[in-house]
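>> Question from a student workshop board

For tomorrow's exercise we were told to take the sequence and the ligand below, predict the bound structure, and bring the output to class. My setup keeps failing. Could a helper post the expected result so I can at least see what it should look like? The ligand is flavin mononucleotide.
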Amino acid sequence: MDFPRILSGNWETPNSHTLPVARSLGVYGRLEKALRMQPTEIVQVVKDSGLRGRGGAGFPTGMKWSFVPGPDKRGGKPVYLLCNADESEPGTFKDRYCMWKDPHLMIEGMIIAAHAIGCKVGYVYIRGEFRYIYDRLWEAVHEARAAGLLGNNILGTGVDFELHIHLGAGAYICGEETALISSLEGFKGQPKLKPPFPAVEGAWRAPTIVNNVETLSAVPWIIEHGAAAYKALGTEKSPGTKLFSCSGHIRKPGVYEVALGYPMKDLIEKECGGLLPGRTMKAVIPGGSSVPIMTPAEVYACTMDYESISTVAGSYLGSGGMIVMDDTTDLVAALANLLRFYAHESCGQCTPCREGCGWMYHILCRVRDNCATAEDLVTLKDLADNIHSKTICFFGASAAMPVQSFLLKFKADFIARIEAASKGIASGTHIAPPSPATVGA
Ligand SMILES: Cc1cc2nc3c(=O)[nH]c(=O)nc-3n(C[C@H](O)[C@H](O)[C@H](O)COP(=O)(O)O)c2cc1C
Ligand code: SF4
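>> Workshop helper replied:
Here is what the output should look like for this input. Compare the format with yours to find the bug.
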């Protein structure tokens, strides 16, 4: 498959993060054209391109931008643009590469997006653990400001845009857009019920657009080449290219850019170099830890786009974090490990999520350690079913879906542990189950 590397094309060039090298590679080359376009024109181009948000939900970007109320309907309030650089989803590590290798591309995308939505001040909300990237971004912002690419009257076009970087404190939930906004405002990073959606009432109760790093980095190419060129890549409903964070039992883990609609089998066998020698595939998580797991049969039938993964496997493309697991994987232990993460990261506002994640982890530890009964599996499924869709934010579903799908598609692995327990067979690695109360401590 032949396609342009829209997002990662500059990554191999030495010093691509510096302004002179970035400019020599064409970064900021589309800026003046974009800033001389009418904001509505940019929104229409991005709408026509079919670009969908790369943070996980796949919401159409141009449509989101069009929800920002016009100047006459904002009651004098400003508009904010927030770049979501929190990237904490287990298995996802693409945004950090975008910011490390090509920070100016993201900044160019932010300036264009800001002009499109009438925003004069934007923020990059970056994950607390990315201190080293924060330093690089900070340098890039200062380089851009010194070159007249940020600040007042950018490139003499009369457009103003100032950009700030805000370092988070390492909570996964702060990647959820309303929690991110609360955290940016200086409050506890806890999600809020929607509506109102941030595009109407977000940061400091003003219209706010939250977009992922990768989403914003795709915008300059769309302005340069046009909506039709972008739409010609990928599939009808999932146009363009996408970065996939590939990890697990593969020979060449890494971040790969392919056009959406690329066969999953090819991504694993060609880009990732296939499975480790002598191994067979057990399962794949296609879109970051929060999405349902897939069987090998589903993997071989799927293409990497929003529709195929959903119709073939009942899963999601999510953030594009693909975790490949081979026949040496203990899926029960893997699921227990995942639930440890969710139990720890729940913000605690909703009872089903706060209590349920801890209990799911607690039960999974017992199953893993050959200490559980058949009734425990019934309780586990019941817990997951009663968390999904019964919480303020999608975190609850994100914790429930792995449990539901592992139990549905790999039930035999769990039954084998129950049978071992009934026969008194000790597990190889017995770890005493923690008390649920200590899980988030
Ligand atoms: C628990 C949770 C964590 C999230 N973490 C991230 C994240 O780290 N980065 C991100 O871009 N989006 C994350 N999202 C999605 C954001 O809420 C939001 O949809 C996204 O930033 C919108 O940008 P996009 O339209 O460009 O995808 C998360 C959502 C949830 C429910
Ligand atoms: S679902 Fe979980 S993370 Fe989301 S608001 Fe409720 S308790 Fe917090």
